[in-house]
Amino acid sequence: MTIVNAIVQGIFLGAFYAVLACGLSIMFGVMRIINLAHGDIAVLGAYVVFVIVQSTGMSPFAAFIAALPVMIVLGYVLQLTILERSLKSGILTPLLATFGLSIVIQNLLLIRFSPDVRSLGGEAGAITTSSWQVTSGLSVSALGIVILVVAVVVFGALQLFLSRTRIGWMMRATAEDADAAELAGIDSRGMYARATALAVAIAALGGLFLAIRSVFDPLSGPTQLIFAFEAVVIGGMGNLWGTLLGGLALGVAQTVGAQVNPEYSALAGHLLFLAVLVLRYGGGRVSLRLAR
Amino acid sequence: MTLLRVEDLDCRYGLLQAVRGVSFEVAQGETVALIGANGAGKSTLLRAIAGAHRPHGGRVVFDGADVTSMPAHRHVSLGVALVPEGRRLFPSLTVEENLRVAEARRGRWNVQSVLEVFPLLQPRRHMAAANLSGGEQQAVAIGRALMSNPRVLLLDEVSLGLAPIVVDAVYRSLAGIISEGTTVLLVEQDLARALKVAGRVICVLEGRIVLEGEAASLDRDQVVNAYFGLKRPA
Amino acid sequence: MRVLRWTRTSRLFAGATVAIAVLLAAVPLVFESDVVQKLTNLLILVLLAAMWNALAGYGGLLSVGQQAFIGMGAYGTIFFAGFGVSPYPAMVMATVVAGVISVPISFLALRLRAAQFAIGMWVIAEAISILVRLDQNLGAGTGISLIQLNQYAPNFRQAYTFWLALGFTVMFLSALFFLLRSPLGLSLQAIRDDEDAARSLGVRIAARKRLLFVLAGFGCGAAGVLIGANTLFIEPGSIFSVQWSAYMIFMVLVGGLGTFEGPILGAILLFGIQTTFTQGGPWYLVGLGATAALFALALPRGIWGTIEERLGLRLLPVGYRVVETKGEERTA
User: Residue A195: which of A216, A167, A221 has the closest Cα?
Assistant: First the structure.
């Protein structure tokens, strides 16, 4: 029974990773940028929620709603200052600039909030602790269900946005051919800014879940980035539903790995990631052609 | 009445100068053809007028307003739309979605009226653009530009890569659009077609205008000489 | 028109470089132990910067995971010393092992492009770090000391470490220098400038990138060995930290990506900043990160790259110069 429990817990963990990965996937899909500061932005979101909770006593979920406008504005600023400029230079520039940004965010958070580890699990109330014992070997937590449902809703909403709304079409058009999009009357700068704002907002949601289900500190960013990136790659870069599945796969790999030895958890995820890379990109020319 | 005026336009790619000191006007309702050999600078000129290429010098004035440094999407909202070379449709979007993303200004053009002008697209309405034939893609590309209800329609090499019979169909539809009074500036490799559809012809060579005149009054030899740069002044 | 390799300036400078290397050898005989330790750190930074530049500047490979090799070098030394090998030979062996391991890693990593390569290397570093953490013999998560070094008196230990550092730095810089001057080096510059064009001319891209990757593996392994020897205590959290990548990126971006002299300048700058702001801490890191980002966006050629471009100056003769017969010079 424990393996079934591990898989179920893995799905819950994976849903969390999927939310973290969603924003990274959006930015890559629309702009072909991997934002190395993505994890730190999620952690920044967690801190914004934390500050609101501390000063108003609101529940973290309500505080997140209040934090959203802040994060969205941040997304716009990020795009219009750093990312836009780096898009015009070479392929390496966005990576280098966002890496620098990552260091800046981590250390500014360190200065403001000290290295203390924090959590919002307590403030989130009963949801953090409630669970149902389905069978003797399987328990399902309320928080796990909530995150899973939210993940599916977020991905579903995004899918609908991109396939059914005019702005969604415009965003896809900009992603496929920004020059032709401009010629068709689409403000490509505006589209990129919207995409970044969306990515940052969803990253902040990831940060909220991180804060509630676990702990966070100013240097938690890189770990979240690595998991988010692994989820995106496992699911297939540029594939939205793939990111959700990739997140789930990563979560399951980690929890199953933990069954063997708790210290193997993250390592199992890394090995799955590397295995996917080998299968997709390794093995010589033949499999490359098949993959295309 | 002059709708579009290009003044002493200078366009570069790095150190390479593609357009040198080009000036001309297009009056409302006119159809003007830009002809010239490959690499003469015609596409660059159209792109500069559409706002997709920032000129190094000179001005583009549309309906009295200096639009030279505005981004392309602003040009579209003012009424200048370009059908780019190579169609450049959005592959994963359907025909209808490709058309609807370009909705910009009020006017007689919408999805329905575009499909009426290009009836071959009706059955393909919900098909992804990547799966269309060359002629169908060209129709969608033109339709996409029309969806913004432009006052000036720019067309870059719409006959490129298409079978003659398909090009005939495209130009028939174009004739209908022209007869409604739309101002058209088009780049066309096929001399015969250009002379047939246009009221005025401008010949470009190595980035400069070498010949300009009424299509009807120009003789064949004049055009060919200008096109290939023969008998240039010493 | 003539095509020159050596100009008067570069001849002077090459001579000066050899002289400096010889002079540096005398450092442990002249200065006190703590100064020697600091200068060893400077040499380590120079080595790291040069290696990261070899990857990114000449190979277009942006790695955020070179700390994998740094850690392998440091822990490799512990590993061999644990088997009774004398410390300094153990260090050489650890360097070799780190370089050798980079070969199979290259077969996976080099399949990846751009961002995937960058983060892929980071994941590999994390995976290796976890494996080390699980090994009790290597001190697990708490860290371990190279106690075998205690057999030497501190002055001697510091001197030997310095000379090893000097030796490694000179060796790897020379290797890179001669690599870049060779026909191989020219093809590397071609790859960096336009990979598709280079491929169409028959340049075997994969092999050349692998060469740079392995060189950087050796070099970063050597740096890791030196870091371990210079600080005596290593633990997985810091030796495998992505912070090392941050330092390398800073040095190379600020110094001058793709130039030979730039990374050295960047290392000297970082060393200067580190010694001035000995408190370290978050503000100094904020400055580093912001500066690196600013250079990436606004001054992509770095300080040296910009100087080189504006003044047409090149101190070390890595490229060619086309000289007009009238005596005017333009860089190739």
Answer: A167
